[in-house]
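Practice problem: Probable flavin oxidoreductase
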Amino acid sequence: MNTTASFAQPLDMGSVRLRNRFVSAPMERNYCELDGTMTDRYIAYLERRAAGGAALVFTEASYVRADGKGRIRQMGVDVDERIPGIARMAEAVHAHGALVGVELNHGGRTAQGAVSGFVPVAPTPIPCAVVGGEMPEQLDSDDIEHLVECFGEAAARCAEAGVDVISLHGGHGYLIHQFLSPAYNHRDDEWAEPTLFVNRVIDAVRTMAPGITLGLRFSAFEAVDGGLDAETTRERIDAIDTHRLDFLDVSAGNYESGQWIIQPGEWQRGLLAPYAEPYARDFDIPVGVAGRISSPETAEQIIASGRADFVSMARTLHADPDFPNRALDGGRYRPCIACNYCIDSLAAGPIPCSVNPWVGRELEQPSKPAGTAVRVAVVGGGPAGTAAARELVLAGHSVDLYDERGSLGGDFALASRLHEYPEYHRIVDWYRDELADLNVTCHTGTRVDAATLAPLDFDAIVLATGGRGPAIDLPGAGTRRIRDVREFLASGDPAPESITIFGADREAAAVADDLLQHGTRVVMIGPQETIAHDVGRRGKIVLLPRLAASENLTTYLSSVVTHIEADRVVISTNGQQRTVPAPGELLVSHGVEPRAGLLTELRRLAPRLGVHSVGDASGDGGSLHAALVTAADVAVRITAAADSRVGADA
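Answer key — structure tokens:
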């Protein structure tokens, strides 16, 4: 146990003591009922984070009044009917030695009627285009007073339910932040004073829940024109009644600068620590910080240097709830790759995790080994294959994994070399190390067919051979070299002077971006109306402006190639044909088709527990998350089939 690390030390915060410095930060998850009531699914998720060693487990930004609801399944603390569910959650988290926190919030201008059922309200009627742009109504003084009461009443409900810690969300562009910001508070009455509202809320919470530990989360800056910069934010915090608070928690950004709320993987780990440091130095209450804290080394550097007293970790503990325990015991943890798939899924419903197939499915995750151990062959060593192998071995089965490439990772390992994805290699490395420690027999550089596997008499076979780009047959194709983007990446060829890409999807955008970093002139021709249409907003929030600013990128969108020549192509744009320059090799990025050629052949072997395809080979890929989920579910099905077969034979 690493008891000497700074993050291992307990921390007194108000009336409570944290067992270490790891805080599972407030993170919207959409796991509640539609009316905001706690669910068994959400309780299992939070309980798992408590069991993983976090000292304080927060739920999420929870609305104190119904018109402040911003997500379809966001947690509510607006009425007494929410109390029993929160109490059940608190009991489950406390059972693992962790404290429970709830973040009180109102969306203000970021809430939209399509979600809440109400017209949004705000200090000043300024719409938020990022979430739909509905014009909010300006709050009058009576309604502001009512909102203050709602915060206090919500805190009282939490206290009654056994919650230990309340955090007021004063950042990220929500209501409290809107009052603080000169960009969104243009009032000329008493509420023009930027800290009046938050101070009134602090007073209400202290009155209604007097014994509870209370803190404030805020953005150190907004990074928008006319908004709060670091200096002005400090002036605001100095004017807040911090003597009535027990901690501060530093974040950054608002909805118009979302890259600062949820930072991309390209950005430095722990990048907000310098902004937290002055608060940790000057205030006599604990100060936490968020922002790309995805390794024990980063957490230790921040805390040991005195830049913060605790670290608020959202995506990191979303990816691996055991991160705190692994940091404490020096073990291996499943890394967050900062792809932002989780946050980009919020509008659709409950959020998943790209690298952890059991996130949000904790109640379904196997908790004990199989009753009957069997032998399984996994063909393919990409994400789906390595995930299936790991899940099967954890269930107690014996696994042989085959891959024709010389190393594991498949096409995802190729993507991990690209400029946009500097963290992707971490999950490839993690699976490789996991399989080595679990004694999975890996046959890399080995191409197999049915004849190879037939004499080995496996009980089940998992086909994880991935996908390939569809064939392109166009007039003039013989005039130049044409390859799928994956073939190009696998070749390891150096960046050329110029290149043309037919396609504007996720893969095309990432390859174009990488080549542009090497000085390549890129022509992109795509049938899509926008670049990277299949990527969520947060996932491309840094990429798209960079592509738009590049002088070496020429794009023809809503266009298809109809004829190929040596150094130009004929394209059709909305039915209008024209010839455009298209230098260099032609790369094609039109998605993937399953590489399932072995499927029929393997099925003829009729293994006792069947042949199962996963990931792109099954047509159920398309994302890392989908690949890992299909792999985990197939492992469960094989285990169930083995147990039921033995039971039937008994």
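Discussion: The two ends are 46 Å apart (CA to CA). Students who identified this feature from the tokens alone can consider the problem solved.
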